[in-house]
Amino acid sequence: MIEIFVEHWANGQVVRHPWSIWVDGKQMAGSHGRREYASRDESEADARRFCDEVLKKQPDRVSRL
């Protein structure tokens, strides 16, 4: 099972939405430290692109935290 988690980090006025991808309960990849997105939609789109290009599959579930 492939899951995308889009997180919500806030520090004062700055809000970011990094993503992580989990496969069968184990974290496989994430944007933490590389890129943190200003919108949840942009973060999810990039995570889905990662699934397409690297895993060759779409996620089974997307959770926005």
Overview of the molecule:
There is one protein chain. This protein has 65 residues and is α+β, with helices and mostly antiparallel strands. The chain has one domain. The protein is 25% helix and 38% strand. It is built from one helix and six strands; from the N terminus they run E-E-E-E-E-H-E. It has one helix at residues 40-55; strands spanning 2-6, 9-11, 14-16, 19-23, 26-30, 61-64. It has a four-stranded mixed beta sheet with strand order 5-4-1-6, covered by helices on one side. Strand 2 (9-11) and strand 3 form a beta hairpin. The longest helix has 16 residues, at 40-55. The radius of gyration is 11 Å and the shape is elongated.
Defining key terms:
65 residues, alpha+beta, four-stranded mixed β-sheet, two-stranded antiparallel sheet, 1 helix
Strand order of the largest sheet: 5-4-1-6
What is the N-to-C succession of helices and strands? EEEEEHE
Quaternary assembly = single chain
How many structural domains? Answer: 1
β-strand amount:
35-45%
Weakly predicted, low-confidence segments: none
Structural class by SSE content: alpha+beta
List the helices and strands and how they pair.
Layout: E1 2-6, E2 9-11, E3 14-16, E4 19-23, E5 26-30, H1 40-55, E6 61-64
Parallel strand pairs: 1-6
Antiparallel strand pairs: 1-4, 2-3, 4-5
Would you kindly provide a brief summary of this structure?
This protein is of the alpha+beta class. The chain contains one helix and six strands. It is elongated.
